[in-house]
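Tutorial, part two.
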Amino acid sequence: DGKPIVLNFWATWCGPCTSELPAFNKAAADYADEITFMMINLTDGQVETVPGVREFLTENGYSLPVYFDKKGSASGPYGASSIPLTYFITSDGMVAGGHMGAMSEETLYNYLEQLLELEK
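Running the prediction step on this input gives:
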């Protein structure tokens, strides 16, 4: 859709992942017109299931756009062996940066502002 993308790999069993979800939920709403957020859940079908993740999102009031990576087709190419892992991608498809580990809201917003600066 011609917007930069934030790609975040996460799972409900990952404490650092869930600790940053409130910041991502807020940012996705704040930047909805400017940035596309894609929250990629590592769905193994055993520990992490689609119904379980949906329940988790509902219970916590998250309205994030979540995609379920059931076969590792997204996490594999992006090397998401350790999560949380976030990539910041420009509207022309260049990876502008990445962050391994949980981010504070302030850190996330700094990355988002840098990403938008690259779009100018």
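The beta strands are 5-10, 36-42, 66-69, 85-89, 95-100. In part three we will examine how such features are distributed along the chain.
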